[in-house]
Structures are given as C-alpha cells and as structure tokens.
Amino acid sequence: MKKCPREAVPDRVRPMSEQYFSLQCMIDGETQSLLKQAQDLLSQNQSKAVGVGDLFKPILKEFLNRHHPVHKARRVAGKKAPAPVEPLRPVLAFKNGTCTPSHKPSDDVTNHEARAQRPYEISIMRPPL
C-alpha cells in the first residue's frame, strides 16, 4: 500500500550546533513557488544571493509581528490617538461702526481641512450704549 509522500518524510528540526539547526519538511508546489518568490525579493532587497534558510527569520518576524497577541497589543499601544483639531472660529467684532474679524490672519492660511469641516461661529458685539 502506498503512503502519502507527506507522511514518508516526517517534519524534523535537528540541532547542528549551538546556533544552527537543520529543518526538514515536505512542501507542496504552491509553497515552493512562494518560497522562490520570497527568495528573489529578499535577494533584490539585500543586493546579494540569499539562501532558503535566510528567508525564515524575516518571514517569521513579520508573521509574529502581525499575528502574535502581545505584538498586536504593543503596536496598538504605540499608536497615538490623533490630536484633536482645534476649530477655527473667527468672531466678528463691532468696532467703530464696522464689523471686523477678531481672529489672526494666519488662521486663514493654516488648517484648511478643519476649517472646511466646521462651521464658523459669528457673534456680533454691540458697542456699549
């Protein structure tokens, strides 16, 4: 009776020295194609030939950074909440019989998006009687 090729070669990780290990596993054609593409990209990125074994560290770091709950929590905690945008509220002041804006002219130049999203508040101050 034929065995499944995947079962014929069991997955193994064997120590070769204190820092290096030998990895043996069966992969399908699609995985081999993805491995080759990743190898080509990393070789272009580093401007040198990269072996298959050199692929595992960056791939695994990226995977853990994206999917490990602790890494996700650190990433979320590291993001700062966007600073609240101060609304621009020019106020018209009534001086000497005319209405004049009481805001700084620089407000007209900066923060166009905030100004477009918030309505102006206009209050007319009447001179004392």
Structure description:
There is one protein chain. The protein has about 130 residues and is an alpha+beta fold. Helices cover about 40% and strands about 10% of the residues. It is built from six helices and four strands. Strand 3 (about 90-95) and strand 4 form a beta hairpin. It starts with a helix and ends in a 12-residue tail after the last helix. The model has no long low-confidence stretch (mean pLDDT about 75).
Number of helical stretches of at least 4 residues:
6
Strand order of the main beta sheet, please?
A: 1-2
Strand runs, count: 4
Note the run of SSEs as H and E.
Answer: HEEHHHEEHH
Molecular shape? elongated
Blueprint of the fold:
Blueprint: H1 5-8, E1 12-15, E2 21-24, H2 29-46, H3 56-67, H4 69-78, E3 92-95, E4 98-101, H5 106-109, H6 112-117
Antiparallel strand pairs: 1-2, 3-4
The gist of it:
The protein is an alpha+beta fold and 129 residues long. Helix content is 42%, strand content 12%. The model has no long low-confidence stretch (mean pLDDT 77).
Attribute tags:
elongated, 42% helix, single chain, alpha+beta, two-stranded antiparallel sheet, 129 residues
